[in-house]
Amino acid sequence: MPRYAFKIEYHGAPFVGWQRQNDRRSVQGAIEEALAKLEPRAHNIAAAGRTDAGVHAMAQVAHCDLDKDWTPFRLTEALNFHLKPDPIAIMDCARVPDAWHARFSAQERRYLFRMLMRRSPVTHQGGLVWRVNPPLDIEAMQKAADLLLGHHDFTTFRSSICQAKSPMKTLDELRLSTVDTLWGPEVHFHVRARSFLHNQVRSFVGTLERVGAGKWSPDRVADALAARDRAACGPVSPPQGLYLAEVGYPQDPFAAT
Q1: Fewer CB under 10 Å: which end of the chain, C or N?
Q2: Which residues have a catalytic role annotated?
Q3: Is 257 inside a domain boundary?
Q4: Which pLDDT band, with edges at 50, 70 and 90, does 22 fall under?
Q5: Are 63 and 5 in contact (CB under 8 A)?
Q6: CATH code for the domain in which residue 29 is found
């Protein structure tokens, strides 16, 4: 059975998240239904990471095994046709070795979080950003973010329902940038690691927003990390500003397509 990798973009608002659920709409379930229209049987696709309800993806990666030897172009076109009207797009497709795995072959994940600084309600970007009241002290936020880099016990920034075996993770990047947009100034959080705990990125963002608003000092973030206690975390940001932006592999499976 040939194995195919997919690069997938989706708007997370209509879904309960990536993972299939029997009675609720998920991204995985929608793609598996589309696959079943091409090859009528049950399908089980594996992804590089599970996104929560309301979280988006710019470049989620998943793989599946099919019976037929499809050309990547034809498979992409057929899936996109059957995914309508769901806000899911197959951006790329590639044939990969049988041992290749979207999750276990990945070396890193990159997330983007968009925070819009303005007092007025969000219209055109509704569901795509987290609106916060300006101004924010971006310099103080970056100072606090730098304290989280490296290999740590991230229990404080881990959901109580996280199923990871260990809270130990290595955070490679947590960089903030400001972007002027047509709808107002945004703060972008660029976050990179091999893997993440459940709600880790949103816990970072919500905590750093408290620093930017002057409610927390940067040192308090270091104290929260050292506490290894979920109760020491700041508020968790809402999901709509979070995007799975990129998944890195030793060799890009889509490079030759």
Answers
A1: N
A2: 52
A3: no
A4: confident
A5: yes
A6: 3.30.70.580
